[in-house]
DNA sequence: CATTATTTACAAGTCAAGCTCATTTTGCGA
DNA sequence: TCGCAAAATGAGCTTGACTTGTAAATAATG
């Protein structure tokens, strides 16, 4: 672990501080976290922390940025092999909901993100890359004609992320409610609203096939002499 | 407005403090607000504030409770004369979105709500009465058969409030995006997913149920060896 | 290697803000 | 007018983020 160059040693220390900060923030929330504790846990004097991060807010920002970076990577992975639009959306939704539930504290940190007036107005920069995963799926769906051309991108996106966030809250509050059905419901909802040929053709085909089968069966039964 | 009884004077002072606090919180956010300023604005010594509200957190809680109480009243009013389910939902959505946009700071205060670990876990109690407005509409819609009977109440609710909140953020960020279309889109989405359709659908649903029944029966028959 | 320069680390100290408490003021009944 | 409890006060206390003067470690130079 012993680094050689100055640069490496500095980076190593920065990571140590960030890690300690992550621990503290998750453990106690933003306000609850003590800079003194973070310093101690990182094996560093309190003043040193301020050489690496100008303020506590900065430290949190770095932590949150890391977090969303991670999520983005995982999201891209989860979506990578999904071809059809709603399949990809379902995969993304499932992953997103999972993460929301598991790490809700961090997500809340992001959003409330120290809103001392005039303090870092654009705190949700981190989410941009994350949200872009959705955007890519959506745009591709439009290009392929799998989505109706009157769909308004950002409204669909707000429904997607908004309802998932609220669902995560609900599920956390009432542990009896399941996540699977939330994703199914959301995707079904989006499908009925935004999919081209929402359901009609397939179901019609299906019922026609079924009718044929029923007819054949009944015909057969009719041929069988009653006893 | 000089009060007479002791009780009245006390209540008047409490209101003055709350009002000053509201001003400070909206102006500067929770962290930015200074107890000293609040005291001064209420025309009271700093120590006095603590006779009425144990902590700063308490003060914010009272403020937020007031806020949601107000909203609830307005929501009930907005919905009162709407008969049909989706008409009522549209009215509620429009009002909610309007409030979210205008007073987003307060709403964010509610949610981030000082999450010092172990500090007042149920901070969103205030919203209960508010959310109940939605619940009433929904339940009535179910009773009247205007909503499909497979609808899961809380999931619909999460879509409703979740997407509105996200839409509010989006609209605040990009002032070019209009609120009217958001409400329309949301209601349309919910309708397509949850409404029992007036003309065709009921019979279709019915025949689909019938088909299922027939299919099951025939499957059973098919398995039975011919006699 | 010795010396100087620069970067990195430290911890004692400053400051601001929430909150406490000993003391004073107020208002009401007798 | 007196007594007394309720209400109010504001000078401190405490805590925690941040500063800063000083020292150690490392690199550059001759």
What does this structure look like?
The structure is a homodimer of 227-residue chains. The first copy, chain A, is 76% helix and 0% strand. Chain A contains 10 helices and no strands. The interface between A and B is large, with 50 and 48 residues. Chain A binds a DNA duplex (30 and 30 nucleotides) through helix 1 and helix 3.
Quick summary:
With 227 residues, chain A is an all-alpha fold. Chain A contains ten helices and no strands. The first copy, chain A, has helices at residues 6-32, 35-41, 46-52, 56-80, 85-102, 104-112, 125-143, 153-173, 179-194, 200-223.
Average per-residue pLDDT of chain A, rounded, comes to 86
What is the CA-atom radius of gyration of chain A, in angstroms? 26 Å
Structural class of chain A: mainly alpha
How would a textbook summarize the main sheet of chain A? none
SSE pattern of chain A, N- to C-terminal: HHHHHHHHHH
Biggest interface, chains and residue tallies: A-B, 50 and 48 residues
Individual helix count of chain A:
10
Number of strands of chain A: 0
Q: Helicity level of chain A, as a percent range?
A: over 70%
Fraction in beta strands of chain A: under 5%
Oligomer class: homodimer
Low-confidence stretches of chain A: 114-122
Q: What is the 3D form of chain A?
A: elongated
Termini of chain A, distance in Å? Answer: 87 Å
